[in-house]
Request: fold
Amino acid sequence: MGIIGKTPEDCTVACWRPAELGEERSAHDLGRELLTGLPDDAINIGFEAVDRHVEQGHGDQIALIWLSKTEGRTAISYRDLADMSSRFANLLYAHGLTKGARVFVAMGRRPELYAAALGTLKAGMVFTPLFAAFGPEPIRTRMEIGDANVLVTTKSLYKRKIAAWRKDIPSLQLVLIVGDDAPEGCLALGPALEDTSSDFQAIPTQPEDPALIHFTSGTTGKPKGAVHVHEAVLYHAMSGRYALELQPGVTYWCTADPGWVTGTTYGIISPLVNRVTMIVDEAEFNLDRWYGILQQEQVAIWYSAPTAIRMMMRAGKEATEGFDFSALQFLASVGEPLNPEAVIWSNEVFGLPFHDNWWQTETGGIMIANTRAQDIKPGSMGKPMPGIHAGIVEKDNGGLREMNDGEIGELALRPGWPSMMRTYLHEQARYDKCFQDGWYLSGDLAMRDADGYFWFVGRADDLIKSSGHLIGPFEVESALIEHDSVAEAAAIGIPDETAGEVVKAYVTLNPGQTPSEELERDIRGLARKRLGAAVAPREIVFRESLPKTRSGKIMRRLLKARELGLPEGDISTLEVDEK
Ligand code: ATP
Ligand code: MG
Reply:
């Protein structure tokens, strides 16, 4: 696969060159440089995201454009957002909550969610967003694990999902209901905010004060609650600037929900800290609506995920006709490996490639990225961010051995960047196991090439071992979706007497395609040509949909458990099931 050249000369947005940035500078230092006026003795994410801009004379700039499902378009300035979040912070204190209290939110993407996030942070309390679409049980267990003190939700969600067990969570002191009226025992947020003062000074939190708890996506098992601290804002600032080109004043749209870490780090904090105008769409994925938003809002920078990109590809280029995407300047993707096919497709359709980047709930920010400063090798995650040292390691005699370029091993990072998680809630031993010999072990397998680009191979749990070959599902899946009929694919290993394991693949088809034995043979034929007989799937089955988490990740472990007749494990984050 060729290289897509986007050298600095092509840059129309920020564009930076690693050498100009200073190759050896720390992530702390690069973040500090962007947060002008940051005091020496305190650091508060909420203050840096909104109040700072108002103090520095940018209160009138639009911070957030809310596109409601039913109420049209609302533009909210930095001053309005500072005001709303200050009221929220005052409200928490008025109800007896104190620094460190845990504030959970389970609601759709409405302005109150953003005010609650920022108000909680300004109040020095800890913010945890949950997907509104979670069922009662996932909401309850996460609130239990997180010792929730406050919940912000809607009347309908409260009645359907929370009222029945609310009393079983003794730590829960206050339930705030968005809107003008509330069920018994809850407080209506609308009037409560109006009655509260908008005069609030952000709490001078310390770098190590807890700020956020994020639950992981649950792709590989039971979700873990990763704790992040206020100092993380240094990394939110610099990674947004250097990986996503977030510059003051640009229009930016992150399609992720805050219930997934991407929707908080890069859907709330990083864009606001970098003083962009961000789009918040309340609706779920809908292609026409999305293309319409890109055009009408003149979105310049767009951050999305492979699952959405594959849906666009499935609808075809025809679906983009009649839309004007000329405002777009930079596209990025995260969450799953981005198939080379998708990079090339977007380059054709939007005139711009999607830039893949890699990170985790645990890392709190983008670690490896295709940035504007380097050419893209489609299928690669890119290179480590400035200030980040990544390596490929292997367990060897109880220690870790750093591997050579071209060898597959576990992707590891040298700890110490500001947005690194500080613990897993109530699971200190599991947290400790992530560190060895001065490395943080990601649990993902990857390879670095001679040019320093990193290539995702698969999650350590998903690796397939067949006749002495190590096979990453991503490689197999990328080859399968090169077939004109295939929309998505998932590959797993199933036991085999002679080979140890053989590859089995599940695929969904593009519209207008029907499953048949002939098609299966044809797809297998292409896979054999691309991958060789040892790596190509032995069997391909057709599905209407693949099981996915709410953050859009294919749950290979579920396919495997079902294949082997094993227990399904934790499926609290399952959104779409296999059909
Ligand atoms: P859990 O840890 O609960 O199993 P999860 O790992 O899916 O869930 P997240 O923290 O949301 O939870 O996702 C991080 C993981 O997503 C990474 O470890 C990696 O496996 C995958 N991922 C993220 N970005 C990319 C990417 N650009 N390419 C390949 N994989 C990616
Ligand atoms: Mg994980």
Q: What stands out?
A: The chain has 17 helices and 30 strands. The longest strand covers residues 486-496. Residues 6-14 have pLDDT under 50 and may be disordered.
